[in-house]
Amino acid sequence: MRYNGWILILLIIVTLSCTIQIVSAEPPIPEGRPGYLLPFHSPYANQSFEKICENGNCLSVTDVYPTNWSFRSPPFFLNMSKYHAFMNISSDSGDKYISEIWYFNDWDEFSHGREQILQYLNRSGTVSNITLDFNETYASTNNSFIEGFKIRQIDVIQYNSNSTSGYFIIFGSYYFPGPNYYIAYYGVVGSSDIGEQSSRLKRIMIIVPQFMNSSRSNVVNPEVPLASLPDAPIPLPVLVTLVELVTSIAVIAAMIAIFVSRLLKKR
Fold it and tell me: Which residues cross the membrane (predicted)?
């Protein structure tokens, strides 16, 4: 009897400790949030963290910022936010690609940054609004996890210039608590036919599961601050924390119920 009681107490202590860790867990600081939109940020089913191949032509990461906190400006575009990240990607064929991400947690700063980049793009290259379809891209991976991604189409800004050509995605997200805004670019380095590079760029973009698999928490090119939108969803990290907390409480309640039941039977 005493032995079982001590086991119960130990299990409750362990569960409570885990619960405290869950409750005290915080989302990443703003400096860490731009990286969530970089390709290869996290591994997924049947794919390497550092490399992905298509028809024998492999892509690999050659440079990432921030790898430390020394300041480096984005290589191709304006530095619209103090929270930014970028990644250089190379292919076996010799083509080079770039991803540049800017993060904002303030609507006014985001609106100003968006206006800045749109003015810059119109001055320095050719701009058009298009819709990218990812259904064929998903199917070509033969990966059930990727094929199940929720976002099937995305409205993007297509940009063409002599230095880089690619796609801009501008959106707001509830992925982290509070309003979050992103301007993300995925492009090829140098003068290139964007039509010929579209398949490869879409392949790079789907290696961002945090965005491609969370359509409910993304608002493309928002016209009003996210906080004013009706029926705002619970941010995913907060939702996961709540589920874990409820599960921990349920486990404790179940253990207590079993202990009390056994105690009553012995009496």
Answer: 236-260
pLDDT score of 258: 66
Report the DSSP beta bridge partners of residue 101.
85, 184
Q: Do 210 and 245 reside in the same domain of the chain?
A: no
- 88 with 61: CB under 8 angstroms? yes
DSSP label of 36: G
Domain range holding 12? 2-24+238-266
116 and 134: one domain? yes
Query: H or E segment at 53?
Result: strand 51-54
Number of domains making up the chain: 2
Residues 6 and 106 in one domain: no
Neighbours of 170 (CB within 10 A): 22
Task: Tell me the three-class secondary structure of 171-235, residue by residue.
Answer: EEECCCCCCEEEEEEEEEECCCCHHHHHHHHHHHHCCCHHHHCCHHHEEECCCCCHHHCCCCCCC
Select the highest-mean-pLDDT range: 116-130, 174-188, 225-239.
116-130
Claim to verify: residue 139 and residue 230 sit in the same structural domain: yes
Give the best-scoring range by mean pLDDT among 12-16, 84-88, 145-149, 242-246. Answer: 84-88
Both 248 and 147 in one domain: the answer is no
Q: What is the pTM of this model?
A: 0.71
Distance CA(85)–CA(32), nearest Å, equals 9
